[in-house]
């Protein structure tokens, strides 16, 4: 999280400033202030700047303003502040506002009567103070999830001093950016290392902006390729947060290709002591999401069930052998038939071996399910009415999903 245009516009001293364009992207963190006095700004920007266009030392026309909007878009700036008045730029052309809306680049209009030195001082001071506060909050969050504190009382006092509400329940989220090999083996990228850095930077900026928009108490923590968030259960329930996270990740996935995002979600965290447990749960779920090839959607720890036991077995050859003994006969029929049998069995397990519900789940006639069940029994030599064999099938299918190079669906 960080200072955003949304925050700036709410400063009492800056109420004369008006948002003119880019309303959907006003939560992006402002990295610093840049006052543009050259014709072009591209080579002077690093990304995340709030760029001031005064039109005093360098005259600006419509064409130049359009070019500045495009350059700001290319550099992923936080926004443009354009001074207007008789002494500088008389007005912001409609074409510039329309173009900024098209590219989703925020434009703020600042009247010339509002002195630049006061505006930059207010924003600059807020940036420094907020950075110091955010560093303290991030450190507190990190200490909570790693249980790195002398006592629960001490960390609770520190959290209270930082206005962090630990009385609220939270869900912890672990997001892993993976599949780096796709960048390095492809001929598409001239500098894959830079592309990887750019995509990581993009992801953290977008997560920060989303955290600002959702008014999360804790900032996004970054540990290498892993990003950690804390979602407060104030008004939203668990399903609402899962829906929001899935929507966000699907949007980000388009911009982070060919990298993949894997997301684990903890059970509810309700105390200082449970933050570490929640982080461990989110991490376990995220790692299993990788094993199960469940990219770009949340995997709640609560849904893992027996997967937690299987994944914890040190010698992976043991569950693999069990799976082979139970399901191996299906692979002798060829890949196409194996897929049919395995998908049918998985659907039967999900529907507690109810033939009608399984037929509805797979979108086929119940007689087809019955015929497949008969073929499966003939192939295996076991009855699907046998409770012990049903249990073996259920566990083996879970192992198959865990260790297979491709998921069942």
TrEMBL record:
Protein name (database record): PucR family transcriptional regulator
Superkingdom of this protein's organism: Bacteria
Ranges of residues in domain CdaR GGDEF-like: 151-287
Record's signal peptide: none
Domain Purine catabolism PurC-like per the UniProt entry, residue ranges: 7-126
Ranges for domain PucR C-terminal helix-turn-helix: 341-398
Annotated InterPro entries: CdaR-like_regulators, CdaR_GGDEF, PucR_C-HTH_dom, PucR_C-HTH_sf, PucR_dom
Family according to the record: Belongs to the CdaR family.
One Pfam match: PucR
Matches recorded under PANTHER family: CARBOHYDRATE DIACID REGULATOR, DNA-BINDING TRANSCRIPTIONAL ACTIVATOR ADER
């Amino acid at each position: 999280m960080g200072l955003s245009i949304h925050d700036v516009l709410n400063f009492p001293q800056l109420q004369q400033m008006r948002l003119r364009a880019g309303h959907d992207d006003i939560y992006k963190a402002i990295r610093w202030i840049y006052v543009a006095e050259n014709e072009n700004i591209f080579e002077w920007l690093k990304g995340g700047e709030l760029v001031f266009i005064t039109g005093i030392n360098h005259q600006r026309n419509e064409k130049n303003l359009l070019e500045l909007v495009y350059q700001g878009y290319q550099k992923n700036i936080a926004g443009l502040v354009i001074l207007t008045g008789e002494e500088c730029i008389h007005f912001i052309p409609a074409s510039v506002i329309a173009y900024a809306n098209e590219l989703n680049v925020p434009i703020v209009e600042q009247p010339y009567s509002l002195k630049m030195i006061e505006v930059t001082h207010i924003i600059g001071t807020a940036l420094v103070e907020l950075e110091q506060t955010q560093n303290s909050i991030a450190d507190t969050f990190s200490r909570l999830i790693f249980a790195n504190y002398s006592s629960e009382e001490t960390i609770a006092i520190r959290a209270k001093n930082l206005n962090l509400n630990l009385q609220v329940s939270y869900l912890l989220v672990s997001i892993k950016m993976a599949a780096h090999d796709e960048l390095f083996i492809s001929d598409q990228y001239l500098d894959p290392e830079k592309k990887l850095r750019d995509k990581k930077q993009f992801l953290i900026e977008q997560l920060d902006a989303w955290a600002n928009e959702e008014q999360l108490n804790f900032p996004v923590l970054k540990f290498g390729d892993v990003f950690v968030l804390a979602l407060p259960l104030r008004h939203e329930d668990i399903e609402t947060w899962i829906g929001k996270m899935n929507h966000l990740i699907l949007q980000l996935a388009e911009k982070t290709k060919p990298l993949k995002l894997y997301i684990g979600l903890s059970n509810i965290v309700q105390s200082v002591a449970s933050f570490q447990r929640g982080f461990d749960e989110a991490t376990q779920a995220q790692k299993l999401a990788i094993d199960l090839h469940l990219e770009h959607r949340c995997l709640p720890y609560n849904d893992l069930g027996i997967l937690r036991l299987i994944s914890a077995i040190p010698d992976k050859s043991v569950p693999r052998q069990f799976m082979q003994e139970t399901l191996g006969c299906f692979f002798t029929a060829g890949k196409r038939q194996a897929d049919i049998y395995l998908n049918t069995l998985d659907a039967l397990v999900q529907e507690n071996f109810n033939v009608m519900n399984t037929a509805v789940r797979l979108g086929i006639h119940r007689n087809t399910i019955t015929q497949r069940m008969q073929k499966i029994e003939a192939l295996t030599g076991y009855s699907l009415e046998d409770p012990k064999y049903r249990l073996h099938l259920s566990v083996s299918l879970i192992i198959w999903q865990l260790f297979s190079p491709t998921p069942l669906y």
